[in-house]
Structure formats: structure tokens, C-alpha cells
Design goal:
With 445 residues, the protein is an alpha/beta fold. Helix content is 41%, strand content 15%. It is built from 16 helices and 15 strands. The strands form 4 sheets. An 8-stranded mixed beta sheet has the order 1-2-3-4-5-7-12-13. A 3-stranded mixed beta sheet has the order 6-8-9. Strand 14 and strand 15 form a beta hairpin. It is globular and about 55 Å long.
Length: 445
Amino acid sequence: MDEDRVSGILFLILQERPSKAQPETSPSIITTDWRKILTSLRILESKRIECHCHGIHFALVDLERSRILPNGRLPVNEKGIEHYKKEMQILRSKGISIMVTLFHWDLPQSLQDEYQGFSSRQSVGDFATYARICFEAFAPYVQWWSTFNEPWTYAQCGHAWGVHAPGHIDPIEPFLVGHHMLLAHAEAVKIYRSMTNMGSGISIALNSDWCIPATDSDQDRLASQTAVEFSLGWFADPIYFGDYPAVMKERIPNLPQFTEQESKFLRNSVDFLCFNHYTTQFCENIPNVHASDTWQRSMGVTRSPYRDGVPIGPKCESTWLFVYPPGIYHISNWISNRYGNPDIFITENGCDIQDEFKLKVEDAVHDVHRINYYRGYLDQVLKAISSGVSIKGYFAWTLFDNFEWGEGYKNRFGIYYVDFADNNKRYPKDSALWYRDLCHTFHLK
């Protein structure tokens, strides 16, 4: 383990679940990946492929909370702070602007052991302390801030379905986790807005599939709207309106409530919206839905990438990921219409390829499927911008193949191939060269 790094719950849980594709590997392979930062930046400098927006190159840096506060509270691990400062200094020296995510699912193990992490309201104050430390340490380097990455995924996959850390299966816990993450977000934003010289704004990164009615019935059209409100609206409504969607309040008896003061601080607690999108599903109404404690049953919607046995689009390696480019256009317009046309940064969009993990590097680098995915989705992003949606930036997910949570190294999203069995050597895929050319020419081809 790195000398400046202490494991959080994400690392410890996943280390107990070896990669499905390569049983001999574990997350420990990537804990030393930061040592290759100079090599990575030389690739960025020479290829200029990380992200491009109106001529400005920028990178998304996810901080590891347990590296900065190993025990979840003071004292600060100064080696962890210096690690990120060096990384950011290198990025800035290359003319790359930085967006920082404070929390991408890595909770210090001590806080999980003490009070079950974000299941407890104690998590709010501890996160606020952590946010202040990061603001004070990294403000000179950071252009944009994001408090949490995909709170829906963290709440549902980690606490309802047990497929992500901490591996809980509980019908009610996800609503508590989501509620406390929203309150922690609001506290962090209060601190941020009390400080000066803090860059261009703060946000939170939300995610959602787009939903298409399975039939032309009014019931299925309403079901599609409900499904988006239960995923994206669960977190976006509070940060814009100060409360949960009405349909969730009606159908979930144990949904936590915000006080008047909490609603006030949550309302308009973002300067722009970070949004992750990958795929679209068909949605069908479930009749006679009654109030329920679980997210799935209370939603009253069957979601599937198939209709009458036919997939919505080409299938990727991930079981949930099918290619449907118009989805990013429709959900961007949904956000624009519902929340007053906020500025949007698309902070994750990309795909894995079926059986890519089985290929030799000389074959895996020829990833036409991925190029077609990016071409299709970016074309729809341009269409959304032309329709008036205020999309300000786009991040391809992702630059390098990495550890994809419960799927280990099997699911490869990178535009660079990483040979995990050979010292993490990197090889540009055809999609990397295509994306480089796109950043230089602004022409989809």
C-alpha cells in the first residue's frame, strides 16, 4: 500500500471480491497507479485527448477521502494533501483546468465502523469538515468543484442491492443515505460560498438513464416520467427546489423530510449541474401500485432495455449498457425544461465493448464500436445545444481502462488499453486517436 494512503471502505470491500475477469488481480493494482501521473500527463500533452470544451482542456480529479483523512476526522494526512497538490500542479503546468470531485464512494473505514457512514446523520458534519479542508488546500488549483459523484448509485447499489460497497441489502437505508448526502452537499456548498477565490462554481454529479414508454399508452408515458423523477429527480429536485419529487413523497412512507431551514440551504445549491449518462430503457407501468418502503416497488415501473425481445440498441459488456444516442438529447432537454436551463457539464459518457477483456492488445485497440458510440452521442449533444440546452463541457469516460467496481477489470471503458498484467502499460486505442482528432478539428467524422 502507498505510504501516503490508507484504505477506505471501497478498497477493503472490493479487495475481498477479486475481478471476475482476472481472479489473480485485485484493486491493489491501481493503488500505485498515481505513480504514473507524469507518464499519463505526457500522453495528455502529446495527444490532447482528455476533454475539450471551446478550446480549453480540462481533467476530472476524484479525491480519495481516506487518503486525506485516514480516520475520517482530524488530523489531516499531510502526505495525502501533498500528493494531490503535486498532481494538480503538474496538470496546471500543462495548461489543463481541473474539476475536483470530493467523494467518489470511498468512505474512511473508521466512519463506517463507528456509525455506518452516510446511514447516520453524523456523516453530515464530518463531510463538511472534510470539504473545508479540501477547499482550503486545493483552491489555488481548482476551477470547478463537485461534492458527490452519483449519489443515486452509492445509495442504491451500495445499500439496497449490495453490489457496491458497503454491500448492504436494505429497503429503507438508501433513502437515509441519499438524504444525508444531500444535507452534506448543502453544508459543503455553504462553506464554499463563504470563501473567496474558489474558482468558477460548485455542483454535484447526478446520473440517470433516459426512459422511453414501452407503449403509446398514457400509463406508460407517465411511468417513463416517474422513472426519471425516481432516479434523477430524487437528487436534482432537492438541489433546485428544496424538496423531493411529489410522486416520491406520495409513494414512499418512510422518505425522510427536510426542515424548512434545510430546504432553504438545499434550494439552488449548485452553480451548474454535473451529469453522467450512458443508456436508455423502455418503461412500462405496473398497475395498482401502493405505497411501499422500497425504491423499486414504490416507483411502480418495469424498466428494461428490451421491448418484445428486441434490444433498444447494440449491447455493450456491462449488462445494463445498450447504445441509444438520442437518450442523451432527450434527458438533457428534460433537465433544461424542469430546472430552468442550467449550465450542464456531462461528466461521464462512454461504453465498454463485449468480450474486449478477452482480446489481445493488438486486437483490442481497434475499437470501432466505441468510436461509433462517441460519434452518435456527441452528435446528439450538439443537437441538444442547438435546441437551446446549455451544455458547457463533456468528459469521455474514460481515458484509461480501470477498476470498474464489482466487475473488476473485465469491463473496459478506456480509450487507452491498460495491460494490468504487465505493469499497467498503456496503448492508445483507435478511439483515442479519433477523439484526439475531434478535439483538434471539432468535426465528427
